[in-house]
């Protein structure tokens, strides 16, 4: 009953990207940006990039400290290590590659951070709904944390993810600085 949200976001993002390839535009500065391209850019910048990095960094960081906190050894029999890498490593590799090979326009910082914050808060509520009805935390690390520690963990995760959004914006501006300067000149 639980499909990780990052998988849904990645699947949606890459599906929208494919649709954009057929009916949208991949031009750096199209005369009129198609709606599908605007959706693609917003999804990449606001959800796909920061959440993929959060998932990869947090998962492997906790795994290095104590794998039982995120991926108990008992799962090895039914969940092979290569599949674990597809879920927690490849998403980072591919989203970073996407940042370098496909130009995108970042939304205003307010719109981007507001959308990401709303998603993160909704996800936090969803985690608690699952815990309420199943009696089990989706992530084993939450089982070992006391309430004050969980609150700090959730706040830290939110701040970390918002920081990853900012990192994505800075990285995008560095990678695509020439194209962004041309766009600024065009709109003057």
Q: Any overview of this molecule?
A:
- By secondary structure, this protein is mainly alpha-helical.
- Helix content is 75%, strand content 0%.
- It has 8 helices and no strands.
- The longest helix has 32 residues, at 35-66.
- It is elongated, with a radius of gyration of 18 Å.
- Belongs to the AIG1 family.
- It is a multi-pass membrane protein.
- This is Androgen-induced gene 1 protein-like.
- The chain crosses the membrane at residues 42-62, 82-101, 113-131, 151-176.
- Keywords: Membrane, Transmembrane, Transmembrane helix.
What's the gist of this structure?
By secondary structure, this protein is mainly alpha-helical. It has 8 helices and no strands.
Quaternary arrangement of the chains shown? single chain
**Morphology call:** elongated
In DSSP terms (H or I, runs of 4 or more residues), the helix count works out at: 8
Number of strands: 0
| CA-based gyration radius | 18 Å
Q: Can you write the helix and strand succession as a string?
A: HHHHHHHH
């Amino acid at each position: 009953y639980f499909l990780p949200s990052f998988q849904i976001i990645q699947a949606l993002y890459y599906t929208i990207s494919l649709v954009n390839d057929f009916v949208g535009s991949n031009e750096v500065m199209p005369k009129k940006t198609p709606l599908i391209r605007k959706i693609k850019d917003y999804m990449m910048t606001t959800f796909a990039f920061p959440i993929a990095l959060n998932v990869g960094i947090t998962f492997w960081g906790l795994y290095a400290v104590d794998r039982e906190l995120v991926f108990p050894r008992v799962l090895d029999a039914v969940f092979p290590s290569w599949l674990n890498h597809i879920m927690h490593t490849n998403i980072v590799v591919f989203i970073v590659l996407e940042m370098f090979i496909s130009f995108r326009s970042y939304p205003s910082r307010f719109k981007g951070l507001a959308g990401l914050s709303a998603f993160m808060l909704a996800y936090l509520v969803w985690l608690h709904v699952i815990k309420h009805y199943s009696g089990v935390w989706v992530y084993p690390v939450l089982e070992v944390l006391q309430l004050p520690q969980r609150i700090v963990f959730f706040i830290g995760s939110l701040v970390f993810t918002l920081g990853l959004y900012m990192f994505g914006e800075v990285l995008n501006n560095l990678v695509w600085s020439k194209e962004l300067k041309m766009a600024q000149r065009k709109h003057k």
